[in-house]
Specification:
By secondary structure, the protein is mainly α. The chain has one domain. It has 4 helices and no strands. It starts with a helix and ends with a helix. The relative contact order is 0.05.
């Protein structure tokens, strides 16, 4: 199947879908475009660069959230 034929089939299928599905497809396409742009922007990053980035994000002091046992009891109700 060629890309052109695939595009035609997808267009026909989308035309028959409910609006809520079309909105979800549009969201997914936006996600794919953003992911590709991010991938291109960071294509030269090595695994060590990503590890350092993640650790920096993980150990930020301003993101501390404290929970009490009462908070946990309120959320967990068997």
């Amino acid at each position: 199947m060629t890309v052109h034929n695939l595009r035609e089939r997808v267009h026909k299928q989308i035309d028959r879908l409910p609006d809520e599905f079309v909105e979800q497809i549009a969201d997914f396409v936006s996600f794919l475009i953003a992911r590709r742009k991010i991938s291109q922007d960071y294509a030269d990053w090595r695994i060590e660069d990503w590890q350092e980035f993640v650790l920096d994000q993980f150990f930020q002091d301003d993101d501390e959230v404290e929970y009490s046992i009462n908070d946990a009891k309120e959320i967990y109700r068997p």
